[in-house]
Structures are given as structure tokens and as C-alpha cells.
Amino acid sequence: MKVSELSIEEKLRLICGKDCWHTNDLNGKIPFLKVTDASMGVRMPANAEEWGGGDKPSVSYPSSQMLANTWNLQTVRAYAECVADDCLEYGADILLGPGVNIKRNPLCGRNFEYYSEDPYLAGVIAREYIAAMQAEGAGTCLKHFCCNNLEYNRKLQSSEVDERTLREIYYKPFEIACEAKPVSVMCSYNKINGVQGSENKKGFSILRNEYGFDGAVISDWDAVYDRVKAAKAGLDLEMPFSKKNFERLVEDVRAGKISEAEIDECAQRVLDMIERCKKLQQGKKRKRTQAERIKLAQEAAEEGIVLLKNEGVLPLQKGQTLSACGLYGALYADGRDNSHLLAGGGSGKVVRLTKDFDIPEELRKAGFQVEYEVAFGDTAVDNSFMDLRKAIENAAVSDINLVFAGTGVNIETEANDRKHMKLSDVQERAILDTAAANPNTVVVLFAGAPIDMSAWIEEVAAVVYAGFCGERGAAAVANVLTGKANPSGKLSETFPLCFEDTPAASGYTDGMVTRYEEGLDVGYRYYDTYCVDVLFPFGHGLSYSEFEYKNLVLKKCGDGIEVNFEIENTSGTDGKEISQVYVRAMSSYVYRPYKELKGFAKSLVKAGKTEKVKVVLDKRAFEYWSVGNDCWEVEDGVYEIIAAASVADERLSAKIKICNGEISVL
């Protein structure tokens, strides 16, 4: 339909939504769209017209941070296809995700919803997610554009960022993700350099004129403060319907504050989005049954679990006796109310379908004897505050002591930030006390962001980062602990020693302004460049296999480089290895971080076998944003190409030289 077929009243209705979750159908004249949260499954409200009233159960998948930890684009695509099936099942046209906000600050309450501190990794995962989901009939809404990197005062505070940093760090994942042609992009709540996210004309222009975005820009919910300013900036659809904003818009149109032509641009893009979403669904049937989707949720969790530390105690061996301890504030691992360990809180939380989350029972099914104790009970559940003594006694007489710890929905949630990076005092004390009774202590962490482990990391033998692992997370954790699944996840963000070591901790902030003083030096770019020690580096993750990298060969490939090397599994256990390719500019006239991720691959390598890896770097791998010339430029000079197991574990390297845009291998 063309916008010329609508009256001015219909156009105004169209660009303001109908209620909380639907676009306006103009009394049946056009189709409507139904939208739903969130990236980690479908959060479908019981009352489709209101905010509250509870949510319908759906498959609860591992959180986005765990999906990123897989570094497996096949898993990303399968995951997105499953969520698309859930959307079709619930009649949702658009899923409000994925989220690609950069993890600048480890305390951000929504970090579990986002992919990475690295813009390349976040952008590639989002691109594959969007392409797969839309191919299966569900539209996506790439969010939050832009610089929504804290929840504190998010509707008013201004993220103050220089142009080069915007281009290379905070805009970059949107640039990459737009290659998949999302049907919509969601603006952020916050201001960007003093301009409200819903009125970010410069940013919206970059999306459309440079990144090829041809969909509609949608507001975050209640993120519009002046509908005319937002429309003039290029925000097409305000959600949800606001009677106050609509009435003011009508008055402003009558007063001539915005032209009908400007309204037409927004309305036409909304019409085009509706038509495109309906075409995406034509002929589409659910690709997987619900049971198959639940199975995929477990497989994705197994791929995303990261083995952070292992002093030879994992995998568990048949015949070993186990003590296990679930801690207050983290979870009940034995099947009681533990929904808060599946995801963080807010719009990203999905009500799970299954209820059988019981890690001790999964271990018993695998043939282990387990003595399980809830060390600190939740008074809301069992009316007691239990004694730790039994857990210590169990640990003292067992071969292996398991401690389940973490955060949960009350700590990691939308609209709030974490107060600190540590576990609660009672959890740290329980880890220390049980580890003192049994040095073979394994800590399994359920959290959506880095944890400060300084109080106890040296006292335990192993740490397994289970993240927010979805409704089949118990089976996934048990399989990793027992070796049925060989851990292959790697960190998509740095775990600093403490919050004070992060650049965000020392940057200027007040109630209204956050200055991004670190510029390009976000995450590993900062720790690497300034030689700051970290607890676990970006890209880190252990395996039950051992891998050797060898035979690096660089070849020219168009205007880029083909990076070839081999990975040999020198162990007796089949495993998957995530190899990472970094680029280091060695002779630059402008500031460049020490090295930057520009490619990666995940390879299944059988025991004793060798697999070839090929990663292609195009010219964008060598670009920087020239503020002086207001464009991307490739600087002449020498570049080092590094194949690594993590940002701190460089295995192979070779050099190239670029002269007048031509690449030569040195």
C-alpha cells in the first residue's frame, strides 16, 4: 500500500502504534503487526494489550551472552530459527532483538542480553541471527541504537562519545548486522552527545545512507518525548501508544510544526515494514517441533558454557563421590523455584516450559552418588535459614565438592545496574569454607556478566561459567561436568580482576552525563594496550582436549588476505577449538589499539587429527575512521596477522605490508 491512500488522520495513527504490542490496523484497512520480547525466546504477555498480567510460557533459551560464548555461527543460526518457530507459534511478527550494545561496563544490568565487548564479534553474531530468523518468517528489531551501556537513569543520561569511537566501537555492530537487512531498528532510551536517542537524526541518517538499512526505526517503549522532533529525525513508529503524545502530535501538525511530507516518510516506512513482515511469513511452517527446540536449547547451553579454570579435577570420573551445595541468592539446583538462574530480569526473561531443572538428579542419572545441601535457604520458599555445617561435612568426606553460586534476576536486570562485581558475602564464605574442607572444589557460576573471584579463586580447583543457561541448563551443566560434553565455549568479554581495573570505573559520570573517556580502549583493547592484568582474558576458555596451532600461511585474496593455518588435537578426546584472528597495526600515524579481533572460526578436531582453518580478512579489517577526512581509510604500513587461542594466547603470526592500497605478504 502507498501512503497516498491514507488520510492524514490515518497516517498519524499509523506512526503511533495501537497499544503496547500491536501496530494500528486502521480499523481493518491494513494488516497489523504483533511484536514481542526478547532475544532469548518469546516473552508473550498473557494480556496482549498491556504491560503486566504475566507472560505465557515458552522455550527459555540460554541468554545472549551464552550464545556469544559459543562463537559458533551454526549454533547462532539454529538458535534463531528456533526462536522464529516460537514467534510463528505465538503469532508474533517481530521479535524485539537482537541486542548489540557493547559491554563497556561490566555492571550494566542488561549485559546478559548483549553479545560482546567487541564490535566485530557482536555484529557478526547479530547478522547471522537476523538472517536466520527472518529466513524462517519472523522479523527482527536490532537494538538499542545507540550507546545504551548502563541502565542507571537510562531515560535521561547522555552518553558522551567522540565520533571515531562511535564509528569503530558503538556503531560498528549495527553496521555489520545491517548486512542482514533487519526489518526494524530500535532506538535507545538515553541521549547520545546530548541528543535524545529517539531524535538521533545524524545516527538514523548513517543507518540508512551508509549502512544500507531500509527498514523502520521503532522507539524503545516510552522513549519518545517529542513526537514531532522524533519524526523529523527519522523515527517512524512510536511504541507503545501514548495518548498524550498522540494528542500533542495532532496539535503540532495543525500548527504546521511538521509537514505532511515528513509524516508521509515515516508512515510509508511503517507500511513497508508491515508488508515485508507479512511476506516473510508466506509459506513458512515451523521448522522444528517444540521438543526439538528444547533440545537445541540444551545444545546451545553446552556450547556456551565456559570452563574457566581446571586443575585436573574435571571431567568427573565414574566412582567418585560428590557433595553439592546450592547457595542463597543463586539457585536451588534440585528442582525448586530456580527460574531466576535461566536469565536475568526485565523484558529478557522468558517463562520456561519445563520444570525439571535438577543438577544433582542429572548427576545421579549419570551414575554419581551426590549428597546435596542447600546451604542458605530462601525464607520465601522454605521458611528457614539453613546451616552451612552439613555442606562442609559433606565436602569433607567426598571426592569432589561442587558449589553452585551466582547472581539472578534481582541482581542482573533491566532498569538497574549491579552494585559491584562480587558474589554476596555469604556465597564467598560458603565457597571458602567448603573448599577448606575439600581442595577439590568446583564452583559453577550462574551469572550474566563477569564476577570478581579474587576472594576465592586461588582456593578452588575448577570454575565453570554456566551463565544464564536456559531451561535445559541443568542437563547441559551435568554433561560438561561429567565429560559427556567437552566444553568448547570461550569468553566474549573480559573478566577483569575487579571493577576498579576497568576504564569505565574511572571515567567521569554524574546523574546526567557519562563520558566515554577511554575512547577506543574498551574491554580487551584497554587491558591489552595498557598491560593491565585480568582474571580471564577475552576469548579464553579451556577444553578437555589439547590443541596445537601450526603452519600459518597468508595469501592475497582480492583486496584482503586469506589466513590459513592448521589445528591439531594432541589429546585423546574429540573437541572443538575456537581460533581467533587479530590484526595489529605496527606503524600507524594515528592511535590504534594494540590489536583487534577481525575474524574467528570454530573447528571440530577429532582426537589425534588435524583440521585446516581458513579465515578471510577483507579491507575493512585494516580500516580506521578518519575524523579529519570523515571517512574510513586504510593506512599504508606494516600489519601483523595473529592466530590466537585467546587475546592473551597468541599462537602464530605473520606480517603484511600495505602500500597505496596494495597488500604484499612479508
Can you summarize this structure?
This protein has 18 helices and 29 strands. The chain has 666 residues and is of the alpha/beta class.
Descriptive report:
With 666 residues, this protein is of the alpha/beta class. Helices cover 27% and strands 23% of the residues. Strands 11-16-15-14-12-13 form a 6-stranded mixed sheet, sandwiched between helices. A 5-stranded parallel sheet has the order 1-4-5-7-10. Strands 23-22-27-28-29 form a 5-stranded antiparallel sheet, with no helix packed on it. Helix 12 links the parallel strand 12 and strand 13 (369-374). Helix 1 crosses helix 10 and helix 14 packs parallel to helix 15 (425-437). The termini are far apart. The model is unreliable at 328-333 and 378-383 (pLDDT under 50).
Query: Mean pLDDT score, rounded?
Result: 94
Uncertain runs with pLDDT below 50, 5 residues or more? 328-333, 378-383
Q: For the CA atoms, what is the radius of gyration?
A: 25 Å
Percent of sequence in beta strands: 15-25%
Q: Can you summarize the main beta sheet?
A: 6 strands, mixed
- Give me the oligomer status: single chain
Task: Give the CA-CA distance, first to last residue.
Answer: 57 Å
Structural class: alpha/beta
Number of strands: 29
- Tally of individual helices: 18
Helix fraction, binned, reads 25-40%
Taking strands numbered 1, 2, ... along the chain, how are they ordered across the largest sheet? 11-16-15-14-12-13
Q: Can you tell me the overall shape?
A: globular
